[in-house]
Structure formats: C-alpha cells, structure tokens
C-alpha cells in the first residue's frame, strides 16, 4: 500500500486524475502529457462531443502511434475508411501514411502513445489557434461564437456525407476559421449597422482572399489544410457567389458545406441589423434554395442532421 508520507523512488511519480506533466487546451479538447521517457510520450485526451483531432502524415516520420479509448465513442476516418471505436478499442499505426480524422460522437477520453515526442507540436499548434481565436473575438464577438458553431454543424454534415479524412480535417479547420480574413476588414465597415454601399461590400468580399492568405501563411502551417474553405465559402452553386463565381462541382465540397451552415446560422442568430428567425423558417429557406444557391448533396445531408444541432457555446 502506498504511504503518502514516504517519498516515492526517483523513477516513480504519482499524479491525481487532474494532474500531469503539462496540459494544453483547445475549445473542445484537453491534452495532458502524463508520461515521457526516451522520446516516448503518453498523452491523455478529453475530447468534447463533435470535437476533432487530426493526424497528418509526414515524409520523415516513421514512428509508432497508438490510441486506446477509455470512455465515450469516436468516429475514426483513415483515408477513405471509417470505423467507430468504443471503450477498450485500439487504433495502432506505424507509421501513419494517410490523414486520420477523429471525431468524438460523445464526450470521450482516450490515451495516445507516440514513440517520438509530439506534445510540443501540440503546444505550438494550440498556441497558434488561441492567438487567432483571440484576434477574432476582439474583432467581433459574434464571429468568435459563430465560428465554433459553424465548425460543429459542418462536421456533422461532413460525417453524414462520409467525407474522407483529408476533407474532414479541411472542413474542421476551415469552418472554424472561415471568417479569419475579417480581421483585416476595417471596423467601420465590418461593424456598420446599416446597409453597406457597393464599395463597402466589395471590401467585405475580400475577407475570403484575406482568409486564404492568412491560413496559407508559413507562420500558420497548422491552418494550411483549411485555406480553400476560407477562400470558397461564399461561392454559390449557381455561380452567383464570390470571389470567383465558381459553380456546381467547381466548388470544393467542404466549402459548399460551410456555405449552407454559415447561411443557416446567420438566419437564426440575432445581429444588429437582423432579428433571429425561427429555426423552421430558416430550414425551409435552405431547402428551397437547393440546386440554386446550395449544393443539393449538402442540403440533403443538412436536412437529415439539422434537428440534432445544439448550441453548446
């Protein structure tokens, strides 16, 4: 029996449930480094419902990675294949050759073991996410909460459409930061309560290009995968959108998903220039615009999952 009055030996450390060597947080994930030795790391994860985690293959990476699910359930997409993990299930790769996207079906906990250090990469990515999230919140508080809803709802549609892992990761990242380009739009235009002039609207439309450039920046490598979503989320199925007037299959499918969800969320949210509409009215409008403004595949999937949308902010 362990006696708390007796110091443990140098090679044994005892932590409570909430303790660890180091912890990193995102909006929907907590990652705690609980053990590290000779390059091997064991990281405990808590992933909230519809939270995501991605693994990206690298040319110079040849290490073992393993997941062991403790509680909850996870939807794991590896390349084009999808499996559901339940407590006691494991995922092992040595090494990962394709993108892996993990989506929590419910609040879940799992252990992640890597034969090479990865936690500091977590830290750098998470710090970058936080910095951009703060910039969005300072620019427009509505945009910050709106972006998290868009990420969550978009992923639900992406899973319904059985997107591959690369597209799911692009969707998750791109949906969360689809409006990041707005940080470069002047406040007097972005926050204007009245109708925009044609010149002001032309400036607003530039946020799609600004967003692409920010996400493609070498300073933000963890965002690169979502840049096309930021660039194309205002394109429309009939070619009436911007910035390029793309239509139908010319539009990247994850961006077409965000187009629907972004429009829906705007309809049901209170804004300075608009009172929130009833959910049923917004759903009817989205359905009526299928094949016009919105990709029919996306609208069909949206109609299947919209009743499960829950505002968890």
Automatic annotation (TrEMBL):
Residues 121-313 form the HD-GYP domain. InterPro entries: Cyclic_di-GMP/3'3'-cGAMP_PDE (IPR052020), HD/PDEase_dom (IPR003607), HD_GYP_dom (IPR037522), RmlC-like_jellyroll (IPR014710), RmlC_Cupin_sf (IPR011051). It comes from the Bacteria. It holds the Pfam family HD_5. PROSITE patterns: HD_GYP. PANTHER family: CYCLIC DI-GMP PHOSPHODIESTERASE TM_0186-RELATED. This is HD-GYP domain-containing protein. It comes from Alicyclobacillus hesperidum.
